[in-house]
From TrEMBL:
PROSITE patterns: AA_TRNA_LIGASE_II. It is found in: Cytoplasm. It comes from Schlesneria paludicola. Residues 2-386 form the Aminoacyl-transfer RNA synthetases class-II family profile domain. Its main location: cytoplasm. The gene is glyQS. One of its GO terms (molecular function) is ATP binding. It is an enzyme of class 6 (ligase). This is Glycine--tRNA ligase.
Length: 482
């Protein structure tokens, strides 16, 4: 993992936020290559969910055809949203403090945390450790809206994007020609005041989510849950993550949220974990009708196995809902019902980190003189690679640079992310591109000047093919389509 972190900084993928001032724990900046990689992860998710979705036919494994739409909602929402959703009261982690070293830990992370006291041990295991009793810590970031600054002006940075989709359910139904079943997708920033952010970008205080809320008839909800669970697992496999490093883990009853009918996590074997351990990439939750009912009726709690409106001391709803009707009327069956929700919720930063970890390889390859050299290569899926093709003139004379520049510009005009490099020996240029995951390197050489063909080198197989310049753009585009 240390090598991956070092590469991420050296080649401009990820930097510590505000590093020149010592950094701020739990916050990260994406550099020139990192922002492209992350953008490609977002685009792959959005294309799968929205752009390439065909609502006219059922996808393989789906119970029926369905609509998909996108939305973008605000980071700060009405405070009542979080009271009705349960975040205001329940979005907490248990934390403990050490009176000796003054460090703070998440209770459920004690076994994997290190005490600052020497010799290093787990918190509570050192002779001098004095841990406090566990207490709740709400993870929402609080802020103030407006100039008065009173408690009545308090608001929160959203801890998830999901609620923006639930409160817009009626708006989407009324403004779009969607019918249940359908999904609303969103990509956006969320914020959680993590007690102990750690493991590079895996657990951060500011992060980006890729979430979709799928609204369906209650009688079909289990079928849709299985469909989305399996489909989301396969998305990671199709983008290059080995099934050996990926699991689909169903939650036990003890792990389920009070509203959840079923939840499965897609988990990845991150290199910072112990052998055999996996970290969550994405959760797929069967949320039932909890969310729409909460925003209609008020905050719900479970009593005798049933979700009911939580009452305050006065017998009235503790946190009243909007009072708006968020049920759905099916004009074909003439039935009115509150849809159930299936939620695939992925972390864009975690997915980006997983793809980066999975892609990192070291091997030995001969240089231009036939001498074996250590090579670091990122075997990123071409759709995710920040740069798709690099163009090199073999030498900086005889018209080769001019020819290479023309190819480079044609690739760029065609919407293909390309780079141009004429510095250093060709082998060194290849290795520079291998290290950042560029799938194809195009070399203009003496033969190019004779027959208008170039060498296209594949990053993974190292195969080199002669390709006519006129066929380059269609070839790269076809390979990117897969």
């Amino acid at each position: 993992m240390d090598k991956i972190v070092a590469l991420a900084k050296r080649r401009g993928f990820i930097f510590q936020s505000s590093e020149i001032y010592g950094g701020l724990n739990g916050f990260w900046d994406y550099g020139p290559l990192g922002v492209e990689l992350k953008r490609n992860v977002r685009q792959a998710w959005w294309s799968d969910m929205i752009t390439e979705h065909d609502e006219l036919v059922p996808p393989p494994g789906a119970p029926e055809a369905f609509d998909m739409v996108g939305i973008e909602t605000s980071i700060i929402m009405h405070p009542q949203v979080w009271k009705c959703s349960g975040h205001y009261d329940l979005f907490v982690d248990k934390m403990v403090d050490c009176r000796e070293c003054k460090a703070r830990f998440r209770l459920d992370h004690l076994r994997s945390s290190e005490c600052p006291l020497k010799p290093s041990k787990h918190p509570g295991e050192h002779d001098k450790c004095q841990l406090t009793e566990p207490r709740d810590f709400n993870l929402m970031f609080k802020t103030i809206v407006g100039a008065l600054g009173g408690e009545e002006d308090a608001a929160y940075l959203r801890p998830e994007t999901a609620q923006g989709m639930f409160v817009n359910f009626k708006n989407v139904c009324d403004s779009s020609r969607v019918k249940v079943p359908f999904g609303i997708a969103q990509i956006g920033k969320s914020f959680r005041n993590e007690i102990t952010p750690r493991n590079f970008t895996f657990r951060s205080r500011e992060f980006e989510q890729m979430e979709m809320e799928f609204f369906c008839h209650p009688s079909q909800s289990l079928q849709w849950y299985r469909y989305w669970r399996d489909r989301r697992y396969n998305w990671y496999v199709n983008l290059g993550i080995s099934p050996e490093h990926l699991i689909l883990r169903e939650h036990s009853k003890d792990e389920l949220s009070h509203y959840s009918v079923g939840t499965a996590d897609v988990e990845y074997a991150f290199p910072f974990l112990e052998s055999g351990e996996f970290g969550e990439l994405e959760g797929i939750a069967h949320r039932g009708d909890f969310d729409l009912r909460s925003h209609m009726e008020g905050k719900l709690c479970k009593e005798q196995g049933q979700l009911v409106v939580e009452k305050g001391p006065d017998g009235k709803p503790k946190y009243p809902g909007s009072g708006k009707d968020l049920s759905y009327f099916d004009d074909q069956s003439r039935e009115r019902f509150v849809p159930h929700v299936i939620e695939p919720a992925a972390g864009c930063d975690r997915a980006t980190l997983a793809f980066l970890c999975e892609a990192y390889h070291e091997d030995q390859q001969p240089d231009e003189k036939g001498v074996l050299q250590q090579r670091v290569v990122l075997r990123l899926h071409p759709k995710l690679a920040p740069i798709k093709a690099a163009v090199f003139p073999l030498i900086k004379k005889d018209g080769m640079p001019e020819k290479a520049v023309a190819i480079y510009r044609e690739l760029k005009r065609s919407g293909i992310a390309a780079a141009y490099d004429q510095q250093a020996a060709i082998g060194r240029r290849y290795r520079r591109m291998d290290e950042i995951g560029t799938p194809w390197c195009i070399t203009v050489d003496g033969q190019t000047l004779q027959d208008d063909t170039v060498t296209v080198r594949d990053r993974d197989s190292l195969a080199q093919d002669r390709v006519p310049i006129a066929e380059l753009v269609p070839l790269i585009q076809q390979r990117l389509r897969g």
